[in-house]
Amino acid sequence: MTKKILSIVCTLIILLFILQINAFAASVPLGSVEVNVTSEKIAPGEEVIVNINFGTSLGAYTFDVAYDNSIFEFVSAEGGTENDNGTRVRVTYYDAAGGTNPRENMSVTFKAKEELESTNPTDFSVTAEGLANSDASQTYDDITTPIKKSVTVEPNYVDYTIKLNYTGDVISGKENTMELITESSMGRNYDHVGMTAEIIAKPSDGATVQLLATERTRATVDLIQDGWGEPDGYQLGGKDVTQILDIAATFSEPGAYTLRITLSDKDSSNAQIATADFDIDVVEETTQTPPEDNTPEEEQPGDGVTDETPEDENNPVTNPDNNENIEGTTNGNNAEELPEDLPKTGSTQYGVIISVLAVLGCSYIVLKNSKKHD
Hints:
Blueprint: H1 2-26, E1 34-37, E2 41-42, E3 47-58, E4 60-66, E5 72-78, E6 81-84, E7 88-94, E8 103-112, E9 120-132, E10 143-153, E11 161-165, E12 170-171, E13 175-201, E14 209-214, E15 221-222, E16 234-251, E17 255-265, E18 271-283, H2 349-373
Parallel strand pairs: 2-10, 12-18
Antiparallel strand pairs: 1-3, 3-8, 4-7, 4-9, 5-8, 6-7, 9-10, 11-13, 13-16, 13-17, 14-15, 14-16, 17-18
């Protein structure tokens, strides 16, 4: 009886020892797992692949890759059967060939959302369970502490440009309407931006400039004295950024001015974001002086030559009966054309002939009477 009890106790001890060995075998950690990505910085619309290397051959595993669904969307997985629940992709693998087809890695592909308009740093978090070697003779601890890999999704930012638009001449001493425009087709995002203006050239030391800025939703401020925006700045950035400030610009005197407009990042010790210089030629306002009226008081417009105008070749007199010129031409566009051939005056050859014939006739009569008396 005693031998039988002793045999049972020995058997139990052996079984406990075997179980303890298996327990120790199951707790072997898989500390060689590595996670990497194809790129740590991508643009919206681009893809990134999360690669997981086991460091040994596995015949069975379940890996979970958690992601931010506001930044990424799941595309595909390689190395097992995938299941995406919207925030986590689970990939499960089991070597159905009995250990002849183990794997040493797997991967999951994600795509950054195209509508992103700002810089988005994020992490992929990897955990695992059900890990075993190729023939399942060795199991490994679950990976409960996430292995993280950081990726930043950042648009291809376009530098900000500053424009100052106005039409016509800039007049000294008067308010001149202008538009100050800040724009970018894809502007980097800033939480606290400041805008300032300064005069870097002017026609004299005493010349002054006032730039009163008014945005559609903000109060009027002087850009030169106060800058634009709240004391801690304003937000700027995103796709198709356009900020328009209506400016009432006053220049104290005419001459050449140069204005400098600067955007700065208050969160980075006022680091310069963008700057632009504008050369402006300011002129004096010109007044139109009407021409002097030299017409004598007694002369009425449209009357032509007055009665007192002397009659000479430079100031012809008009016949009051038929308005025809006696001599010369009238002033204005309604002057009558003179005939090309004017009538001739004085003796003509016909008068000479008649005179000769008259003399001959008289001579004939005298001679005839003389013969009769003879």
